[in-house]
Amino acid sequence: MILARQAQVLNPESATLQPVYGMLDTGADRSFISNELANRLQLQDVDSKRLTISTFGSNMPIVKTCGITVLQMWDANGAPHTFMVTRIDKVTKSLQRNLICLEDKRFLCDNDLQL
């Protein structure tokens, strides 16, 4: 299952929390961060690893050496979590958002559910 959610992550250089959107794959053995986001957060590599990677939306795996960095994230309850994440150029191609009909919006609201 892939979960998409907004979270707060720490920019260690500015010591500030910044909101980001992420996808969490509960079945994955490795977590990824885009180079763009890692650079924006000024995250430093602590290691590197040569990987064969199959990304969402791609038919051909790529082989490359990727940096590994530490990401600190806070959940909606304010609890901190630390992840070792692998840097990659792109995690996924652009995703298309779907419109939600009024009936579905009411259901979400009536059941206090957030997307």
From TrEMBL:
Gene Ontology BP annotations: proteolysis
Pfam families associated with the record: DUF1758 (PF05585)
Domain of life from the UniProt record: Eukaryota
One GO MF term attached to the UniProt entry: aspartic-type endopeptidase activity
Domain DUF1758: residue ranges: 22-96
PROSITE patterns linked: ASP_PROTEASE
InterPro entries xrefs: Aspartic_peptidase_AS (IPR001969), DUF1758 (IPR008737), Peptidase_aspartic_dom_sf (IPR021109)
Protein name: DUF1758 domain-containing protein
Species name: Ancylostoma ceylanicum
